[in-house]
Amino acid sequence: DQQVKQNSPSLSVQEGRISILNCDYTNSMFDYFLWYKKYPAEGPTFLISISSIKDKNEDGRFTVFLNKSAKHLSLHIVPSQPGDSAVYFCAASPRNYGQNFVFGPGTRLSVLP
Amino acid sequence: DAMVIQNPRYQVTQFGKPVTLSCSQTLNHNVMYWYQQKSSQAPKLLFHYYDKDFNNEADTPDNFQSRRPNTSFCFLDIRSPGLGDAAMYLCATSPGLTDTQYFGPGTRLTVL
Fold this sequence. Notes:
Chain A is mainly beta and 113 residues long. Helices cover 0% and strands 53% of the residues of chain A.
C-alpha cells in the first residue's frame, strides 16, 4: 500500500519552461513534506520542504504547493534548466507523531535544450 | 564540508557471502538511517539508529543487521546476500527523527 504516490514516472520539458512534478499521499497524519533531487550514481539531495501549516514555500526557482484537502503537493521549477534533469522524490512524514519519512517512487525529469 | 560518506561506492559479492557496507558522517547528527533502493522504486527504510537506540522496520529481513559503534559511523551487514538483495543502499543522517535527512552517495551492491 503506497502512502506516497508519484504517478508520473517521467516528464520531459523544454529548457526555460515550467516543470511541474506532482505527488499525492493517502495518510492524513502527514504534516511535513520534502522534495529531493537525485542524479545518477549520487545520493538524493534535499531541495525544499513544506509544513502543513503553509500552502506554499518558495526557494529561488523552486516552489512547492500543498493542497491538504486534496492530499496533493506539487513542485514547480521555473525556468527549467538542463541541469535540473534528475529523478525527483517526494517524501512525507507525520512529524507531530515523531515518525519517519515515507518516500514516493520518484519522477524522472528531462529538461531538453 | 560536512557530509555523509559511504564506502565502497560499488560492491560485488557472491551469493551467500557476507558483506558489510560502511557509512560515516561529519554532521554530528543523532540519527543515522539505512535505506534500500531498487530501480524505479522508492527508497525503503531498513532501520535507523537514534544515538545508540536501534529501530528495525517491521518488514526488514533478519538477513540485514546494523552496527553503530560511535556517533560518526554506521555499518550495514548482510549476512547471506541473495540475488534479491542487489540494490543501491543509501545511508542518511538527520539531527532528529522528523528533521530533513541528508544522504550519502550510496553503495551499489551486485550479487553474483
